[in-house]
Design goal:
The chain is an alpha+beta fold. The chain has two domains: 116 residues, no CATH class; 37 residues, no CATH class. The protein contains three helices and eight strands. A hairpin with a 2-residue loop joins strand 2 and strand 3. 29% of the residues are buried.
């Protein structure tokens, strides 16, 4: 079981019965925590962000563990967390203090932020695209590259597949 699966399981207690986890992201309120923890062996921050089909939750965790304490922020599912445009080893999420921020995400979770954004719902009254997109990735099912405009799904932690393979 991967770290993302473990985080999803830990967060299940905070979800409503009809909610489905679309992305989980570890974050910290210390921007250099992940740079220092690289040498200390800690891979998790003191916050877990859970993007579901209905909302985005910010859950407080014990530092470096999956023991969760409480929901400290809740955002509309239409909230955009990216785009990530940095060369730094961490990215600051656009969250204010009322929603558990400021928070930083380590580089290994940048794809998860992008995945959460790709599943986000449009604000009320606007059409939305609910499909994930993984332009340039290789489909694990057919071996062909996923091109712009093709819908895709993330299987497990890193395997992308076409919704409908072109072959």
């Amino acid at each position: 079981m991967g770290i993302r699966d473990s985080m999803s399981e830990a967060a299940a207690a905070y979800l409503q019965p009809d909610e489905i986890v679309q992305a989980v992201i570890t974050a910290s309120n210390d921007p250099w925590k992940f740079a220092r923890s690289k040498y200390l062996g800690q891979r998790l921050g003191n916050r877990i962000i859970v993007a579901t089909n209905r909302r985005i939750l910010v859950i407080e965790a014990l530092p470096g563990s999956l023991k969760l304490r409480d929901v400290i922020g809740e955002l509309a599912r239409s909230t955009q967390l990216g785009p990530i445009e940095t060369l730094r080893p961490h990215y600051q999420l656009p969250l204010d203090e009322n929603h558990g921020g400021p928070l930083w995400v380590p580089r290994q979770f940048f794809p998860d932020v992008q995945q959460a954004d790709s599943w986000r719902t449009a604000p009320e009254g606007q059409p939305g695209d609910h499909a994930a997109h993984a332009t340039g990735r290789i489909c694990k099912r057919c071996g062909q590259p996923i091109t712009a405009g093709q819908d895709a799904r993330l299987r497990g932690e890193s395997e992308w597949v076409h919704d409908v393979c072109p072959i």
